[in-house]
Specification:
The complex is a heterodimer. Chain A is an all-beta fold. Chain A has strands at 4-6, 11-14, 19-25, 30-38, 45-50, 54-58, 61-66, 71-76, 85-93, 100-101, 105-110. Helix content of chain A is 0%, strand content 57%. In chain A, the strands form two sheets. In chain A, strands 2, 4, 5, 9, 10 and 11 form a six-stranded mixed beta sheet that branches. Chain A has a five-stranded antiparallel beta sheet with strand order 1-3-8-7-6, with no helix packed on it. Chain A is globular and about 45 Å long. Chain B is mainly beta. Chain B contains no helices and eleven strands. In chain B, strands 2, 4, 5, 6, 9, 10 and 11 form a seven-stranded mixed beta sheet that branches. Classes of the chains: A mainly beta, B mainly beta.
Chain lengths: 111, 113
């Protein structure tokens, strides 16, 4: 079982719709959870992170964490063509310095 | 305030050669992690350097080695290159007081022929 798994893409959504991305992790000791956006040919860019159960909102992005279900999600509201990218979920555990990444989900926003 | 810089941008080598990649972290950041990202995959952790020491290492062979300098910049060295080493190599810049926030440089695209 992979440490971090993301729902397989690609995900295609119309402009203005909500894009929903899911991520599950296997290590119950995971403490911090991150979402990165990666445009084709570019490096990952940190969108947001979450530590506590519940929702965290930042502009059009909302991260949701459920540690009991070992599940973290990212919602993109009012999707724009500029949101078309690969979204990477990453986790860290206590006293562990590395980010463990999922394989990513590619999102395409149709104009 | 300069962001994370990496050099070179692209590199082409042949099997068996050696390569050195360089990274300068953001101002105020003292920790550097290196990741390898193969096409279509998420980044894989190679190692992290803090206070000029390798603090943690991922599941990579000894052909991968590194160094951190007093100014916090870092190098990644790969010996005896294999075709499978072709990937995007990413440097992540971290402030040890906020280690959860890792900011990536633009990466070095390595092609091994």
């Amino acid at each position: 079982q992979k440490e971090v798994e993301q729902n397989s893409g690609p995900l295609s959504v119309p402009e203005g719709a909500i894009a929903s991305l899911n991520c599950t992790y296997s290590d119950r000791g995971s403490q911090s959870f991150f979402w990165y956006r990666q445009y084709s040919g570019k490096s990952p860019e940190l969108i947001m992170f979450i530590y506590s159960n519940g929702d965290k909102e930042d502009g059009r992005f909302t991260a949701q964490l459920n540690k009991a279900s070992q599940y973290v999600s990212l919602l993109i509201r009012d999707s724009q063509p500029s949101d078309s990218a690969t979204y990477l979920c990453a986790v860290t555990t206590l006293n562990d310095y590395k980010l463990s990444f999922g394989a990513g989900t590619t999102v395409t926003v149709r104009a | 305030d300069a962001g994370v810089t990496q050099s070179p941008t692209h590199l082409i080598k042949t099997r068996g050669q050696q390569v050195t990649l360089r990274c300068s972290p953001k101002s105020g950041h003292d920790t550097v992690s290196w990741y390898q990202q193969a096409l279509g995959q998420g980044p894989q952790f190679i190692f992290q350097y803090y206070e000029e020491e390798e603090r943690q290492r991922g599941n990579f062979p000894d052909r991968f080695s590194g160094h951190q300098f007093p100014n916090y910049s870092s190098e990644l060295n790969v010996n005896a290159l294999l075709l499978g080493d072709s990937a995007l190599y990413l440097c992540a810049s971290i402030a040890s007081t906020l280690y959860n926030e890792q900011f990536f440089g633009p990466g070095t695209r390595l092609t091994v022929l």
